[in-house]
Amino acid sequence: MRISGAVVLLFCAHLVRAVPGKFTSFSLHPGLNVTASIPYDSILQNYVQQKIDGNAKCSKLRHRVEWRALTAKQRQDWINAHWCLTQNPSLLAGAQTNLTGFRTSLHDDFSLIHLRLFHTIHYVAAFLPWHRYFIMAREAALRHCHYEGPLPYWDWGNILASPILSDDLGVGGNGTAPNGTVITGPFSHLPSSYINLPNANESDVTFQPHYLTRTFGTAINRNATYPMFEESYNSSAMRRVMTDSGDDYTLFEPLFEGIRGRQDIVGTGPHAGVHRSIGGEMNNAHSPNDPVFFLHHANVDRLWHYWQNGDTTGRGIGLSRSNWMDLNSKFWAYAGNTKQRHIQPDGGPNATLFDVQTVEGLFLPNVETYKIMDIERPPLCYTYV
Asked: A single Gene Ontology molecular function, please (predicted)?
């Protein structure tokens, strides 16, 4: 690291009534690397059967809602909780970064983890499940700061017209020249400690205290206006991702996340298009410095959940309530590279549902991927409304 000059899980009740009997397929999921001594197939079968038998119940499903569905008080409480994170000391800085003595916060911990793990959680299969778990950790942190409302997501639309990016109804707007510092709105002068320097390895962490930055439409000079990126994440673009990927996770994930090095509309992808449109912190590896990151990624998670359950529209239409019972359905589809191909051209070992996801102990323990594929059973226990 260079120095430059920084849930408590709730149990819930699932929405789907368990169907008596066995689930519909006992075939080994094709994404698994089989080690003869470990009964992967049986583990997954038993895991699904537990829910069918009613033994994987949530005491309550926490609702996640679109930002505009929050009450005025809930919006303010959510904003206040983010400021609270900046005033709580880091849980990671002493033991895991050797930054003893530096004043870093719980807010900073999220960017620190995102930076440290960047190459193992982007442009790889783990992108979607890892960020699903990361949002869970953020929810736990907000509860720690006494936020009691539903976790919000941002359903993308016209980015310029969105109330999310307004000072009075959202999380604030653009930054100001020369460097994009946000000086108005509820997150004016929000402090952060860590950045990834331009042209540095994306997992390099630099301690550089600064305030929140946004540079709408100027994240990349050759694409300095909204239309390029807005076209990458509008409703038509999301339908294209949902439809073109079919049931294949290895197509869905990169089309959704974005393909490294691609600046065209399809290659940018809905996920990366939002990051690049907002610019500033959001167009860098330290993007969790901006609270809008968590609204954005809750929506990414929502759309993955829809895809898992058979939606091809991106609007939650025609969702299956039984896909989770079929290990060969797209609900359990998970495969692809585990290493970024520009670093390791063969992509490393194929991803499996038994790969471990970690947020380095920040509120949550390590977890095997198959345990976070179903949001409506422990340990996740939430749904989108």
From this structure: oxidoreductase activity
Round the average pLDDT of the chain to a whole number and report it.
84
Strands 2-3 and 367-368: unpaired
CA distances, 382 to each of 9, 20, 189, 372 (Å): 11, 23, 32, 11
Q: Are 211 and 192 in contact (CB under 8 A)?
A: yes
* Residue ranges of domains in the chain, CATH in brackets: 2-19+39-384 (1.10.1280.10)
As beta bridge partners, residue 284 has none
Alpha-carbon 329 to chain mean position: 22
Contacts from 30-37 at CB under 8 Å and sequence distance 24+? 30/335, 31/249, 31/333, 31/334, 31/335, 31/350, 31/351, 31/352, 31/353, 32/352, 32/353, 32/354, 33/349, 33/350, 33/352
Q: Is the dihedral of CA 72, 75, 79, 81 positive or negative?
A: positive
**Gap between the Cα atoms of 287 and 99, Å rounded:** 21
Phi, psi of 24 (to 5 degrees): -80, -15
Strand order in the sheet with 191-195: 2-3, 206-211, 191-195
Q: Confidence class of residue 163 from pLDDT cuts 50, 70 and 90? A: confident
Minimum mean pLDDT among 91-95, 104-108, 335-339: which range? Answer: 91-95
Q: What is the DSSP letter of 343?
A: T
Q: Rounded to whole angstroms, how far apart are CA atoms 133 and 137?
A: 6
Dihedral-angle region of residue 217 (phi above 0 means left; psi in -120 to 50 means alpha; beta otherwise): left
Phi/psi of residue 283, nearest 5 degrees? -100, 25
